[in-house]
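Morning - adenosine-5'-tetraphosphate inputs below, output right after.
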Amino acid sequence: MKRMLTGLQPTGVITLGNYIGAIKEMAKRQDEYESFIFVADLHAITVPNMDLNLKEKTRSLIALYLACGIDPNKNTIFVQSENEYHTNLSWFLECNSYFGELSRMHQFKEKSKKNENFTAGLFTYPVLMAADILLYDTDVVPVGIDQKQHVELARDIAIRFNNKYGETFVVPEPVMSGAGAKIMDLIDPTKKMSKSSENQNGVIRLLDDLDVIRKKIMRATTDSEMNIKYDPENKPGISNLITIYASILNKTVEEVEKEFIDSNYGTFKKAVADTVVQEVSRIQDKYNEYINSDLIDKILEEGKKKSRIFAKAKYEAVKNKVGFY
Ligand code: AQP
């Protein structure tokens, strides 16, 4: 059976973008693959944030994974920092990565602009992500389009390492959701919806109050035209709402355009709000069942053991290939 892996950072409550871009895709494919899903807490410390509350956010993220349909019987669920082979392998991969290629990573360019005192960890973070992926002989990685470049880097590193030391790593493929690979901010639809965004009104977090979610969608930035047409360049706001609606209901953009051909923006926004609220409400009900249950501790204990077995074997194989004692 082929393997699938994805991980999210516990940098805040996950957004509708994270859900549509990564988790929903993972849940949809969990019967087809042997799956690993983790909390990327080591990645969370690459940016300055003194209020991380990692323990609480990690637990909350696991409860959200479960609430979004990640089945603990079909997935190995674990916390990255509980498995030191990720950082160990990362060093081997760093020594097979180039300064030039890391300098070209879009996320690094964007995030380093926000703080001129950015860390070396922010720069090498895509290599740690490559280690996360390559440790498990991962075939596919469900990601939003913003992370596609990082999976391509993992592919390049795997191929380079295999050529140098002999067949060691499976070369992974990124997989993206059909309609919704990138969900944009509701206030500034030219910018990606992000957990760490400063303007709360542009972001739908999965634990937001349902009335607040409805208001955020009804107030989303649109244009001065009237037609529900997918045109991300000229109509980024309405195109984003089309993507959200299509992704949640598993429809194509064309189907949505057809459905709302005679509607105005108000009617369409209300339909989007109803759909999102219904989906998020279902997730929140499940989240409340899980968050205080000891199921989370059991899942993580099990996931820690299982992930370490896989990771240790691959790490030892890499050390041998490179020729260490
Ligand atoms: N707006 C988005 N649309 C679609 N997919 C998205 N992802 C993130 N934002 C969107 C996907 O979610 C996964 C989570 O990645 P992450 O937690 O490692 O961090 P990120 O990509 O940096 O996500 P955020 O929300 O923007 O976090 P912060 O604000 O902390 O940087 C990835 O698969 C990503 O593609």
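Note: The chain has a mean pLDDT of 94.

O.
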